[in-house]
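Quick one, T. Sequence first:
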Amino acid sequence: MMIQPKISIRGAREHYLKNVTLDLPHHQLIVVTGLSGSGKSSLVIDTIYREAKRRYVEFLGSEFGFRFLDLPRSGLDFIEGLPPAFLLTSHQTSVSLRSTVGTLTEIADFLRLLFSKAGDLFCYQCGERLERFTPQQIIAKVMELPPQTSLMILAPKPEEMSLETLQKEGFVRVRIDGKLTELEGLSLFEAREVQIVVDRLVVKEEARTRIADSIELALRYGEGVVQIFSDEKPGLDGTYCTEYRCLACGLHYGELSPAFFSFNSPQGACPHCHGRGFLKDTSNVCTACQGARLRKESLSVKVGPYSIFELCSLRLSKISLFLERLKFGDRKREEVQKEVSSKILPKLKLLMNTGLGELSLNRSLSSLSRGELQRLRIASQIASGLVGVLYILDEPTLGLHSSEVPRLVKLLYQMRDEGNTVLVIEHDGAVIQAADVIVEMGPRAGSGGGELTAFGKKAQLQKSSSLTGRLLRGELRISLGKATRLASPFCLEIRGARANNLKKIDVKIPLEVFCCVTGVSGSGKTSLVNDVLCRALKSHLSKEKILNPSWDELEGMGKVKRLVVVDDQGMGKNSRSNVSTYVGIFDQIRELFARVPESRLRGYSENRFSFNVKGGRCESCRGEGLEKVEMMWMADLEISCEACRGSCYNRETLEIKYKGRNIHEVLGMTVEEALHFFENIPSILLSLKSLKEVGVGYLQLGQRSRTLSSGEVQRMKLAMDLARRHLQGTLYVFDEPTQGLHLVDVERLLKIFFRLRDEGNSVLVIEHHLEVIRCADYIIDMGPGGGERGGEIVAQGTLEEIEKVRESVTGRCLKQCPMTHNK
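Structure tokens:
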């Protein structure tokens, strides 16, 4: 059977998709774009990826006996030519504290192999280099001695072995403090060092068997230690161990297996902090390992001048250079080094070409910027060498500076050129321009979207009247009034900021303006805004003292009456949390249902319509609407509850209707639909209007919080604040709020920023979007690079001032891409 040259999709109708039919060619870079909520994720993730995952699980079922899994199909007629699929999403913000750059890229695995097979072990107490030998190696060492050499084969006497026992075992001599002594007539051992004389012989080929037997016997009595002594040639003396042991200190070391160098293994993890690097329930560095996570024995093994922790703490570029120059004195270790380097060096080169050369393998994934983490994940997939798969990427430019997008495009091309199909959900103009095929969804969001509005190559879309066609022709621009406002006399002044990679910088942040903090990924933007400024302001406003602040001084805090941090944190912790519960209208909706005459007749209270308590919810899924299927070696699967069919409620509860709709049907409404449904309920209407104003009117009231993108979460938080009335003097802090936004949606967000500013508030935004940066009253550009090369202020001032600074990467990008049109 011939492999389909394309993915054929017919009648896709998941969510608001309107029977979408299209063919996606294999081995191409395909970009799916369109307004927020237009149906991009419904097509790519909820239809294509979900169907690929379902088919894979069904294959496992037929092979391994999981036929009981009757997974629901996506809403479509059929799909053909679908290869195995991998989803790489930039919204995977939760990573294990134990995950590092080394563990994700698997480079750490190969380094552990190198250290276990070719490392030199030193006693951590005295610093003596330790070696171990097999019995065969010891025999070979003896046979290498000059022929006719007289020698003694000795074994250290175990402390518990008595004089009588030695005599019973047939031994006749011992060596006490270097002097040979007959056992006969000896009454006791008063010396500190006693050696059993196992044999005295002359080295010659005929004596090989005798030498081997004597060495085996000495190792047995010496508990793995044998000593060779020659009166004729003292320089040939030697002590050999079959295990890593320091005889001077009496310390025993374990087996040098790869697990010995892993902080995720009991064999290698520091016993005090269990491989965390810090003490439990505190942020204090573990005093035993000094944050290295490994036990002392593991840190005592070195390759060249480095322990594995020291090597993994170097920048990736330095690790690459070290491995290229690494040499050993013996053939066996050279072979190990050659094999390991052949696996590591291509990965390191790929990471460096991706702009991640400044990272270290010990760097925790939780400390990376979104842009760094996204590129790291993509590079790791490329390094895996998979061919013939479908890679799905959801907003891969998230967290990337404009100067870093060309590198991302090269990665996408590399994934494609290795024989894969790359399907990308994206709004970035540079990525859309680079696509082999462009798919545009629309024409509007929510129920007004779900249609295929444009499809084809770049040249075809440039002739289209669609939003993407206008964008490609340079006709779609942000058109706003003059954004720049006169400088404010008030500012926040930070001195000596040193969180993470910040280099004790001083910076002034003007208030009552729209200010952008920019810079390449990892340059220190989040460290400055979140870890210094917001932390200090929260302390000031709550009057709680901060221990060990990461700044020297912060002035001007008295001008800030209130702090609102609009980020993507704090949502979705409860698996039942949804849009209506988060914005606080679900309680009012339940109250409306409880007032229905039928509810009163039955004695139903508001709790009856809650999926968090017993009574009205479906007890089969406990109000989740989903059932989890544990797959052991795979991520758990979620399937719709068979009892309630995903409604979360039991039959009796669903019989109650308000204005002809039951509670499940109301939660299935979009915000825009709910505006008409609740037009006579002012308290609900206010929150719904705010949601529509920030551009998330397409979301369903019952959509689970954990399924929302980072940009959607931020806009919901903003909507909640807009629904309240507050005095001026609020500082609004946003962290990349344009995530997932089309240029049309970005313009809507900018209008809200200007409104907040004009009401006497301050707007501080961490952002990469050039159109947003251009509209800012004041810009603080950080860098010049990421990681160790960042943490400094490169430029600050108005747009015109930033563009004049040669060292500013942001300034260069702003000058090269003059797209914004300010009337």
